Amino acid sequence: MDTGGAAVLRTGESGRFLPERTRRAPVALVIGGSVVGVLAALPVVYLLVRAFEAGGGELFETLRRPGLLVLVLRTAALAGVVAGASVAIAFALAVLTAATDLPMRRLSSVVSVLPLAVPCYVGASAVVGLSGPGGVFEGMGAVRGFWAAAIVLTLFIFPLAYLPLRASISRVDPRLIDAARSLGESGLGATLRVILAWSWPACVGGGVLVGLYTLGEFGAVTMLRCDTLTAVIYEQYRSSFSRTGAAVSSLLLVVLVLACLGVGGLLRRRGSWSSGRGSSRGGVTLKLGAWRWPAFALVMLIGAGPVLLVVLTLLSWLGYEGGAGGVGGGLWSGAATSASVAIAAGVACVLMTAPAAVLAARYPGRVSGLVERAVSTGFALPGIVVALGLAFFALRATPFAYQTWGLVVAAFVVLFAAQSLMALRASLERSPVRLEEAARTLGRGPVGAFVGVTLPGLAPGIGAAWVLVTLSAMKELPAMLLLSPAGSVSLAELVWSSTREAMFASAAAPGLALIGVSAGLVWLVAMREGLT
Amino acid sequence: MGYRRYAFAVIAGIAAVFVLSMHAGFGRAEDGAAAQAAPSITVYSGRSRQLVAPVFEAFERETGIRVRVRYGGTAELAALLLEEGDRTPADLFLAQDAGALAALKRAGRFRPLPSALRQRVEPRFVSRDAERGGWIGVSGRARAVVYNTDLVDPAALPATLGGVLDSVWAGKVGYPPSNASFQAMVSAMRARDGDEKTIEWLRALRASAAKTYANNTETVRAVASGEVAIGLVNHYYALRMLAETPGLPVSNFYMRGDDAGSLVNIAGAGVMRRRGGTDATHEAAEKLIAFLLSEQTQAYFAAETFEFPLIAGVEPPAGAPALREVGAGSMDLGELSDLEGTLRLMSRAGVLP
Amino acid sequence: MTECKAHAICCRSLSKSFGETPVLRSLNLCVDRGELVCLLGPSGCGKTTLLRCIAGFEHPGAGSIQIGGKTVAGAGLASPVAPEARRVGVVFQEAALFPHLSVLGNVAFGLSQGRGLLSRLVRGPGRAERARAREMLDLVGLADKADRRPGELSGGEQQRVALARALAPEPEVVLLDEPFANLDRSLRLTLRREVRDALKACGATAILVTHDQDEAFTMADRVGVMLHGEIAQIDTPERIYEHPADTRVASMVGRGALLDASVEDGGLVCCGLGRVSADGIGEACAGAGCSVFVRPEGLRLNPEGCPRSVAGRVVRVEYAGDHRLVTVDIGNGAAIPVKVDPNLRVSVGTEVGVEVVGPVRVVRGVKPPSPVTVSAKRTAEAGRGDR
After folding, report:
1. Which residues of B touch A67 (CB under 8 A)?
2. Interval A12-56: pLDDT, tens
3. Is C267 inside any structural domain?
4. ipTM of this model?
5. pLDDT 10s digits, B213-234
6. DSSP string computed for C92-112
7. What is the pTM of this model?
8. C1 in any annotated domain
9. C99 in the same domain as C27
10. Which domain holds residue A226?
11. C265 in the same domain as C236
12. Which of A125, A225, A240 to mutate to test the interface with B (most CBs of B within 10 A)?
């Protein structure tokens, strides 16, 4: 199993600078790298406490719940479908934007990440609104159920897979394509047989990330009436108040997370390869010929289409009575709070995952595997579970930290460290360990070598990691609601409380503000990505 | 490329300043005891900001007591309150439905309510033993049958839940099984008629090809569009929709039979037992409940949410009868807390997954 | 456009510019079936661009390319034939093996074109494909490494796999772009032989591009010297060495002294080495200026003051095992390389005499854009290539 989990979230090419397994990691690094893992494991410990406090009875009662198997299977299927579809879309867009002569490639890249700016629940509520009375899609009948959820989720979270795929594809050695074509492979064939194979680790890593996200998604799936395990966990919190049933379901979700990582590990191993040099000469440029503009239109349609639809929907809501005034001054303080906390969460996440990333990239082993699994679990657990888990520990161990922004930031670290870890590790794996060794031979100590050489290697990843976490934290809802100091306002809460009351009009302004601020961050992602 | 790095650094720097500028927020929120002169209290509100923030603001203006509010889902907040126990910073819990209140009461989380408060509303809207710790309703939410006025003759409407199963209505009924208010009705049915009869009713409903919807709003929309003829919902959705779009062919009918179809649920509040609570904070919290039950606030709820005022002398919401004409009035809302049992029953009946 | 059925490859009047910079200038090149042509030239002379044009990765601005008698680029074609339809095998400087495939998978990559795309994508090579791939691996002596990953092979092995991969689909022509540039010298020597043998065993037509004269001379049936986007001379290695077409080729290939001279009567020329008889004066009138060229082995070192010798001073002595190369300054800045017996000890500064014993050739005076003296690196390499 060790190899299974240990390498799944990696999206860089494997083993390029494989350190010898025999090398022992410095103790400080092991400890530093484990901190984030321990933090991320706290909610699981909490779940175990809650699941078993009432004895095994409740546990079996929950496991005997009729339809549970269907539910688990549906959840797994949704994660699988969304992951598969996201990787397919992300691969197509990444090839188009990173390896062809597509017009306006930079714009296309930004647009391909743009959907990340839209929280899934906003996207879903727009879709629900559009398909309701008076909506554009009114005649199409209700857009609901498994496939609706799958489509909406895919459209708004595929950039999670796009980012690592683009990074990987932009480093395909162009000679591999030349070689394939000289061996009789057509442009399409070469793309699939060479680029797909090259970026397979990134495909799997991105797919796992999307799958984990889907497992923990709550807002969109409930709005679109696709009951998943996470939806049921919320329902159980609502219904039982004993928290035991919800804890048992959450533990089932943890099992699904581990299964997801396991499947990722298997897929990864299937297509793994052990040596390849990233291209230093600017990557592949496939000629699209007559397809340039149609391909450009396709990228715009997939990337900007859904976002535009949501924005236009929100704008039309803004026109309703009371649309603009509903929130008033709360909007600005909400935006400031959301942005500040999200930014702080991004910084904290990067700082805390950096040692874990170094550990995983340089000394892969049992510790890094466990850290990865803990962090992945945190990513997939519903926000409410993480929030309650942290509240549980904070009230007992650090009561002074309860009801502070610090705890909110900690929750965001638990929830989003996986993204940060992935981005940091990918950039570390691209910077050769040889350099560190060279620095050591030049008389620097391990710390000096790390600061002088490894940190600069981390640099491109730091920006990406920071922005990804900040973006996610902006959109996060349950942990923000439950853990922020009472009396604070956040954008996500403003959007949520409006849509909850079906007061779509007053959701419009904060929704647009949220998308606006997020779009700014997406622009930063794209900038950073252009730098690496 | 260098300037982009530069831009990035600048933005990060601004961000850091941003964070620092709100460092006050990173400190612990001051406790209620901090300001003796004008106490401040913390409220966990399961009712949304859009709805109740103006009420809290009016209260602050009127009393000088500062109110810090955490908004969230009623269920999430209830779960959090249970998790926090007596370490909770909350002085008051304002909940959207009686089930969550009942669960917290069972866990002994509420302080006693003074009799002056208890007597403001009908006893059916106050928890039993509220003098030893409990909750009180602040607005009423009645079950209703919403019907399409183009398709249905109001005289032919079913008077009881049993009547809904009549073959006349086969395939013409819409209901939101995953909705809390519908589930509360099923809980009431269980408390009154027992699990066996309830599951029979649910199965019969399902067998009659009744259509399911995501929530009350969807159900009312389906009735308005003629997709179904009648819907089992709470009363205020149709009223709200009519206020937004006058002329929609929908109207409410209130069952008067002595069964769960005439249930009147509440949104309510209770004062939390907490460490660090003082007489001042308790008193402030009770003042807030009193304010929620004042004529002005009750009238506000009636106008804004179309909920029934619970105190005498306030007009019912536009388009609704007076509260005394609604509901059979013999349900104990405290019995609605076994939602989990209800959900299990509903999934056994096949109306929930 | 003349049909060129007899040749495997025929490039006519090929021109190509990158922006304002011309890279190929009206270049002509024909390669016979089964022939191995090495294109020798300094970096930047356009040889790699020529290969990429033939392979179809680049498209020439003007001129035409025929492969196997079929026009693939140029006149009469709406658009150039795509690389995959040209039946051209390519071996790159870095082996460019597919890192995700085994050695066998790499060699079989080009054998699956008969199958549908999905089948190629999902399924590994079929039995016949595997057999053919093994046959090719046998040819390059790597049959025992069929299941390895490219990353586990040495550089030389990787290049042999790349060759096997290129040869497997029986291409009309194999193009090798500096295939040994990244390998160490000893490996290069053995690999040259092996690659030539493998190509000959398949009867493949091949063009190999290199900047290493040694490599070109040892491997090629014909060597084309490429300079500034043109082929300055294409001929057998012997002819190139002994009869360089012009001063550029002369200074490019091997070492020697290139001297200004004036033609005199009786087949004589007057140059820094005195009045000597020279080949190739042709129709030049007496008194006309020209360039003459003499190889180090065409000179002899005599003691100072010897008759028929020109006096000079030794400025450099290079020991090469089987000979010594002594550079003598004979005044006027002319530094003359002379090949001597390795046992002859001479030291720098010694006054000596230089005598012409071998042929002196008059070469066409095309002025190379760089100074006449060939760069140290090139002469050092070329010196080893004496034959």
Report:
1. 347, 353
2. 444 443 444 446 777 888 888 899 999 999 999 999 888 887 766
3. yes
4. 0.80
5. 877 888 898 899 889 999 999 9
6. -SS----TTS-HHHHHHGGG-
7. 0.79
8. no
9. yes
10. 2-315+327-531
11. no
12. A240
